[in-house]
């Protein structure tokens, strides 16, 4: 009788199942996620317990970075172009088609109007390098030097349904916020959203 | 990779006949898995999944003057947002009556203070006046507004002007000049 041979277990792992899982997850991520937009500045928002989500469309975002610089953007490319047309007419500046197209691609920006034209003629690489100085505001909200009011006004002229969302940085000082608030109030905008991160409410807390 | 070669290959064994090795029908999936996870990693990093939430802020109309009844100072808690993430508050007295200024951090301490004061006067009469100073940050303001939501304080106001009395009161807490 021959000795019973121990059958050596194969060390090859069957990767097919793992492969299936990987691609399943991949498909899920591709279908659900939306790409992060290229922003003019990094803004870290504070968190709140508010459960209301930021609306998907028709939204105007006013960004406020940690140095108090103000950025502005609206979500729809078509309206972005219309807004630029409006402001060009109001300010007596003309933009070429290429510049308009370039502007339509920017999700937000923080340039004074008089520097906008030269900024738009730059290449994408150069744009990324330039530190945007922010849109001028002031505490009265209605002075001629306050350009944020022009942008807000012309954006609403382009699309009347725009809701206003304010995205402020944790470290932004209050006076900077006050200037933005004053600008909005000067145009009789008294209701807007503050974009915040989500945090869990304290234990036992229930919404009314 | 995940496969370790255990066989001896197609070489000669014990001087036996040379046989052509049968090609395995099993496909090695390892590189494909690698690729899959690489792409997953990319998508996770490049996209946003959770949408930020938003809190609505309603501010009173500045163009219209609405006559309201004056609020009793005994029902009012005035919160000053100071520097270094500290809030100072006075409660029950106007700034002229030499009130006691208490200092709290945001979060739990602050919430306790609000809840305690709410109990004292009753939630229907309790009013919070939020006065951010220029030392305070945007985050502090959002935190306080959030506390209002947590403690369910319905009546609160955001005021950015400090009266001269309040300024003298806070002189040693917050640097208000320059």
Automatic annotation (TrEMBL), chain A:
What's the protein's topology in the membrane? Answer: Single-pass membrane protein; Single-pass type II membrane protein
Q: Does the keyword Manganese apply?
A: no
Q: Which UniProt keywords apply?
A: Cell membrane, Membrane, Protein transport, Transmembrane, Transmembrane helix, Transport
Q: Name one Pfam family in it.
A: ExbD
Q: Name the GO cellular-component terms.
A: plasma membrane
Q: Which GO terms describe its biological process?
A: protein transport
- Localisation: Cell membrane
InterPro entries the record matches = ExbD (IPR003400)
Molecular function GO labels: transmembrane transporter activity
The record's similarity note reads: Belongs to the ExbD/TolR family.
Q: Tell me what this protein is called.
A: Biopolymer transporter ExbD
Question: Source species, please?
Answer: Spirosoma montaniterrae
UniProtKB/TrEMBL annotation, chain B:
Q: Which GO terms describe its molecular function?
A: transmembrane transporter activity
Which stretches does UniProt call biased (Gly residues)?
1-10
Q: Where in the cell is it found?
A: Cell membrane
Species of origin? Spirosoma montaniterrae
Which keywords describe this protein according to UniProt?
Cell membrane, Membrane, Protein transport, Transmembrane, Transmembrane helix, Transport
Taxonomic lineage:
Bacteria, Pseudomonadati, Bacteroidota, Cytophagia, Cytophagales
Designated name of the protein: Biopolymer transporter ExbD
The record, for PANTHER family, names: BIOPOLYMER TRANSPORT PROTEIN EXBD-RELATED, EXBD MEMBRANE COMPONENT OF PMF-DRIVEN MACROMOLECULE IMPORT SYSTEM
- Region annotation (Disordered) ranges: 1-23
Q: Which GO terms describe its biological process?
A: protein transport
């Amino acid at each position: 009788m021959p000795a019973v041979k121990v059958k050596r277990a194969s060390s090859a792992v069957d990767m097919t199942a793992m492969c299936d899982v990987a691609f399943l997850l991949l498909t899920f991520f591709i279908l659900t996620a939306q790409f992060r937009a290229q922003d003019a500045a990094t803004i870290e928002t504070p968190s709140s317990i508010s459960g209301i989500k930021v609306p998907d469309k028709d939204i105007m975002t006013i960004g406020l970075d940690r140095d108090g610089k103000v950025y502005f953007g609206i979500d729809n490319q078509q309206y972005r172009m219309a807004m630029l047309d409006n402001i060009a007419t109001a300010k007596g500046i003309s933009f070429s088609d290429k510049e308009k197209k370039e502007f339509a691609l920017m999700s937000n920006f923080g340039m004074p109007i008089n520097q906008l034209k030269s900024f738009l003629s730059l290449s994408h690489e150069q744009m990324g390098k330039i530190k945007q100085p922010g849109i001028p505001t002031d505490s009265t909200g209605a002075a001629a030097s306050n350009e944020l009011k022009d942008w807000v006004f012309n954006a609403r002229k382009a699309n009347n349904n725009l809701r206003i969302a304010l995205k402020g940085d944790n470290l932004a000082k209050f006076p900077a916020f006050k200037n933005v608030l004053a600008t909005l109030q000067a145009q009789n905008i008294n209701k807007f959203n503050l974009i915040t991160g989500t945090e869990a409410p304290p234990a036992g807390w229930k919404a009314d | 990779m995940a496969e370790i070669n255990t066989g001896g290959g197609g070489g000669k064994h014990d001087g036996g006949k040379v046989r052509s090795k049968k090609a395995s029908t099993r496909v090695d999936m390892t590189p494909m898995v690698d690729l899959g996870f690489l792409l997953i990693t990319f998508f996770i990093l490049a996209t946003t999944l959770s949408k930020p939430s938003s809190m609505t802020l309603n501010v009173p109309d500045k163009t219209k003057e609405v006559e309201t009844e004056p609020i009793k100072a005994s029902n009012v808690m005035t919160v000053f947002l100071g520097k270094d993430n500290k809030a100072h508050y006075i409660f029950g007295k106007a700034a002229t009556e030499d009130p006691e200024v208490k200092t709290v951090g945001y979060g739990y301490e602050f919430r306790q203070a609000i809840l305690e004061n709410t109990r004292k006067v009753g939630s229907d009469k309790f009013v919070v006046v939020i006065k951010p100073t220029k030392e305070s940050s945007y985050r502090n303001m959002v935190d306080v507004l959030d506390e209002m939501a947590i403690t369910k304080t319905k009546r609160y106001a955001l005021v950015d002007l400090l009266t001269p009395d309040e300024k003298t009161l806070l002189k040693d807490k917050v640097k208000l000049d320059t």
